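Exercise: predict the fold of this chain.
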Amino acid sequence: MKSAVVSVLVLLVIFVAWPVSADRKASPGAGGYGGDEDDDNDTKSWFPLDNQLSLSYYDKICPDFEKIVATKVREWTKKDSSLGPALLRLLFHDCGVTGCDASVLLDHEGSERRSPASKTLRGFELIDDIKFEIEKACPGLVSCADILTAASRDATFQLGGPYWPNAYGRRDSTDSYARDVEKVPSGRRDITGLLETFQSYGLNVLDLVVLSGAHTIGKAYCGTIQSRLYNFNATDGTDPSIDPKYADFLRRKCRVASETVYLDASTPVKFDNQYYINLRKNMGVLTTDQELVKDPRTAPLVKAFAEQPPHMFRQQFAVSMTKLVNVGVITGEDRVGVIRKVCSKSNSKPY
């Protein structure tokens, strides 16, 4: 009983308010697609609150935006449920590089998307399909960054996760560099390194633990964990922090690097708090997962989310996601962003 009370108190103390405004990097053109040779500002009045994000941004200029996104996400995930976790991961990789600017979607030689570290990312075709439909309804008005933000939220919700209101008005980046992908936290980082990265985004230790909880759904490629299973620290053995029975299962499952394993072995397709319960049983798949329960800065939060009802985690996940999607955004006040015509291509650069 005492343990449960402590967990409740921890969560009550750390809950934070919904952020509405966004941090901004140097950013985009006024209206229309932007980034074209003819920089026509006649469309500037089409865009409300161009210097900030807004919950009502598309209410007048593209009222069916969120409906189109939700419909397309439902269509695609009905055919392939694995696209839900894939979209969430795609968003993390976008926001974790230069900010939530759709740079991960650009497909050209030397781009983030062409980096070896991005080769397992998926969901690009779904984003392209959404963009195609939105361009028919609202040409030149909706950014790829906003589409990815909305699609990842809808995919999470359709998997049983929380729904959160998104503020919109992002612009798309004009550049994407493979060398920047190293900024994305890997599954082998220690907690100090992860915290430093999250703090550089304006996020905190709570956000780290909560957003790691996205591993309650989805899979990992065996190649990312084989070093824990077969030759841990050059010992020819298994990482002793893994539960022995679970380690035996993983060793049998992951003989081939291209195989996949669920990140949550207990409820792999349910968005709940089982991930944290698994961590306390030493059943974390990635090194960074299991480190959360060992580090004194993160272990109390893992304990709290493991012991409380799943809705406590879902509520805080919504809050932390709202913070994440505001990291490093480009808005209409800036001069370096555009609204791409096609999400995978620059409006003006031939590459």
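Check your answer against the key: The chain is about 40% helix and 0% strand.
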